[in-house]
Amino acid sequence: MKRWTFRFGLKWKAAALLAVLLASVIAVLSVLVLAGIREDQRQRLEQTLAAEAETANLRVRQEALTSGSPAPDAFMEQSGQGLAVDLGAESGLPVTLYKTDGTLVGTSLPFQPKADVRDALAYTAKDQSAYITEGDQLLYLAPLYTMDQQPVGTVQFHVSLAEQHAFYERIQRLFWLVGVTVLVGGFLLGFLYVWRQAHVITRLNRAAMRIGEGEYLREPTVQRKDELGELAQGIFEMSGKIATTHAQLTDEKSKLLEVVTRLRELEQQQKLFIGNISHELKTPLTSILAYTDLLDMYRDDPALLEEASRQIGTEAERLYALVEKSLKLSSMDVYEFETHAASVDLKPLLAEAATRLQAKAEKQGILLVTDLQEGKVWADADNVMHMVMNLLDNAVKYNKPGGKVVMSNEAVSVPDGPGRMQIKVSDTGMGIPLEAQSRIFDPFFTVSSDRSRAHGGTGLGLSLVRSLAEKQHGSVNLTASGPEGSTFVIELPLERP
């Protein structure tokens, strides 16, 4: 059973923080506004009562002037009740009058007030106003004076605070209602806003996890014009760079695997090469040793001496050619350090190669024909000479009596690339069997051991030609072979690759 756990994540933390902030702001605003309302009510009430007290003083002075200015106490006893009723009617507030000694002399109330105002009367005796608050009732006491500023008593106004208290309570309830509404609404709006931002962050987190799992982004996860949008763009660009780096690493890994495979193949080829060269070297050496023994045994046989001398020379030449080609093949790995590729004028070079083989061709009754065109190739001149000489030598060596060898060249165009020069060597020899055509460029491969023995073949010539051609960004191929003869084509670049 999967256990559900609540995580107090960013959404809830931000929403809770917003709620606390809203509650704090509303509470502070409520306290300040309510305090302002209470202070405004107090100031307005003070101003109103002060104005009523001033009106009462004017009324008392007028009454004192019309009554002949008797003594203050006598005046208050004589006129107090009437003044209280008149002042109450004018102000619209219940009014009570006291003499200077605190004795009640008149009231507009239908009953005698029972409030204890002795402390307040002590203030008015000192020329100060005083307040007494009891529940929803406020008593305001102010001193009264004659025209010559002689105190004659105290006026007391009865004020009801019920309406002010009711207004204050209505405002307070309104603040509570508005505060709760704003708090809940603000919390919900804040939660939704933070939830949207957290949802974007969650998408960015999932995108980062996908990148970690090797699933790279094709476009930014979110499209926004703010910091989160910049972060999404940054993650997308990072994904592209990681994908590029991963592809490069994969490509390098593939290349390394290919190199390892190639090294293993080369190791096998090296073992095979050593085995083959050992075998091939042993054969002519065996013949030389055998004829050397015959020379020691039959020194008085001129015919044998002549045959042995001829055979030893032939085997020595074959041994020399084998060693020379083997060394050439083994040096292919350092080709780049030994070659001197340049733009080579091909026609004179091919003509010189034909001249070198002309004597051998005539000796064997082979007609060597050239059809050469002007042109240049980018290659090493010595290597080109070596390749052409090998092909011409094979064409003469494995030809039929009275046969023909044709060497020609022509420049050909290549789609979407620089042109190439083709060098063709055709013969009218015995041809190469179909099953052997795919292997003729392998080291030490010979079509027929008897034919190789008869003509001194080593099986390394065509392998050397292929290696030299490939090292110069070219190729060599058998393009035709049959009873009418064979055609080999060397292709070399016209310009620097």
Key words describing this protein structure:
17% strand; 5-stranded antiparallel β-sheet; alpha+beta; rod-shaped; 497 residues; 5-stranded mixed β-sheet
Description:
With 497 residues, this protein is α+β, with helices and mostly antiparallel strands. It contains eleven helices and twelve strands. It has helices at residues 10-66, 72-91, 118-124, 162-212, 227-297, 302-330, 335-338, 346-363, 381-397, 449-455, 461-471, and strands at residues 95-98, 104-107, 130-134, 137-145, 151-160, 342-345, 367-371, 376-379, 404-414, 417-427, 475-482, 485-493. Helix 4 (162-212) packs parallel to helix 5 (227-297). It starts with 9 loop residues before the first helix and ends with a strand.
**β-sheet strand percentage:** 15-25%
Helix content class: 55-70%
Number of alpha- plus pi-helical segments: 11
Quick one: how many beta strands?
A: 12
Classify the secondary structure makeup into a structural class: alpha+beta
How would the blueprint of this fold be written?
Elements: H1 10-66, H2 72-91, E1 95-98, E2 104-107, H3 118-124, E3 130-134, E4 137-145, E5 151-160, H4 162-212, H5 227-297, H6 302-330, H7 335-338, E6 342-345, H8 346-363, E7 367-371, E8 376-379, H9 381-397, E9 404-414, E10 417-427, H10 449-455, H11 461-471, E11 475-482, E12 485-493
Parallel strand pairs: 7-9
Antiparallel strand pairs: 1-2, 1-5, 3-4, 4-5, 6-8, 9-10, 10-12, 11-12
Helix pairs in contact: 1-2, 1-4, 4-5, 5-6, 8-9, 9-11
Put the structure in a nutshell:
By secondary structure, this protein is an alpha+beta fold. The chain is built from 11 helices and 12 strands. The chain has helices spanning 10-66, 72-91, 118-124, 162-212, 227-297, 302-330, 335-338, 346-363, 381-397, 449-455, 461-471; strands spanning 95-98, 104-107, 130-134, 137-145, 151-160, 342-345, 367-371, 376-379, 404-414, 417-427, 475-482, 485-493.
